[in-house]
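Hey,
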Amino acid sequence: QLQLVESGGGLVQPGGSLRLSCAASGRNVDYYAITWFRQAPGKEREGVSCISSSGGSTNYADPVKGRFTISRDNAKNTVYLQMNSLKPEDTAIYYCAAAPRSQPMSDYEWGLAFVYDYWGQGTQVTVSS
């Protein structure tokens, strides 16, 4: 069983930065693609960014391209999401999720919540002045 725990959320002003962490335990995260999702009040959960098991392939949702960067440190069993130039519309609960994939996911697949087997409990990000 793979456990995921997110951290790093908080309150930040527009234009500010946060770095989220997704720490895995129970299994080696090397074999899993990891994706960050977010869910704002009254909205559906949406994929934000995905990184392949090797770290060699990444995907980003259009609203965050150029502002967010996903990375992973398999030695630490941790995936990160660096969020810069934050906007009020980035306010949401951010979740990390894992799916066993030896190859990178397609542009279509990575944003589908149902393909992921493991989820963290989420961390709140609030962007407000």
